[in-house]
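User: Predict the structure for this protein chain, please.
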Amino acid sequence: MNRLKCVQKIGGYYLLFILCKILADLFVLFFVSGSDISSSMSDQELYRAVSEVISQNASLVLLATYVLTGMYLLIKRTKSRRSLLAVKGLYGRVTVKKMIFGALMGASAGMWSFVILRLNETVKSPFEVFVKSMQPSAVPEPLWLKITASIVAAAVIEEVLFRGIILSYFLLLTRPVSACICQALLFATLFDGTNGWVYAFALGLITSLAVLRVSNIKAAIFIRLAFNGIMLMLDSCCAHIFSDPLSIRFMLIAGGILFVFFGSLYFGGRTSKRIVVRPR
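Assistant: Here is the predicted structure, written as C-alpha cells:
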C-alpha cells in the first residue's frame, strides 16, 4: 500500500468519527430537545439552547457516536471479510499478567488524572463523558448510561479505531514510536484547549505504546476500561474528598507512584516478540 493511500485511509477514518459525532448530536437534538428549540429563537438563543441540550445528554451523545462508528466498522469488516487493520503484527499473544498490570496501570493513571481534572476544570472534550460529568448539570444522567457510554463503548470503539486501525496505517508510514506519536497527536485534536490536548496526547501515546509492547490491541482496551472506570467511580462516589487538601495530595502522590510502579512492570522485562509490520 502506497503512502498516499495510507494517508487517505487515516483521514477517512478520522472524518468518520467526526461525522458520527455530528450525526449523534443531530439525533439527540431531534429526539430529545422537544419544544426547547424553535425557529423563532435568535441565533444566540438557539446556540445556547442547543449547547444546553447536548451538555445535558452528553452520555447519550457519546453512546450514539460509538454505536454509529461501531456499526460502520462492523459492516465494513463483514463486507470485506478481512481485518480492518492494515498490518499483521497487532494480533500477538498477551499474557494474563500483562493484562492485569496494564489494567492496574490504567486505574492508577485514572486516579491521578481525576484529581488533575477536578483541580483544573478548564479541560473539556466533546468525546470524554467523564470530563463532562464533572461539570454541574441540571439533569443528572442515569449511572448505567454513563457506564455504558464512557467506560465500555469508549474503551472498545476508540481504542479499536485509533490504537488499532489508524495506528496500523501510521505503522506503514513511519517507525513504530513515530507512529504512536502521530496517532496520539491526531487523537488529541478531538479535545479542546491546551490542557485537554496535552491530556489526550499523553493518553493516546501511552495506550499506543502499550499496544506495541505486547503486539495486541486488547492491551489498550483493558487499560482504557480501567482508566475510564476509575475516573467515573471516583467522580460518582468520592467527589467530597476535594474539601480536604490532605486527601488531594495523597491521591496525587499515590496515583503517580502506582502508575510508575505498574507501568514499569508492564513495559519492563524482556519481550519475546517484536512487532512485525507487514502490510495485508
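The two ends are 9 Å apart (CA to CA).
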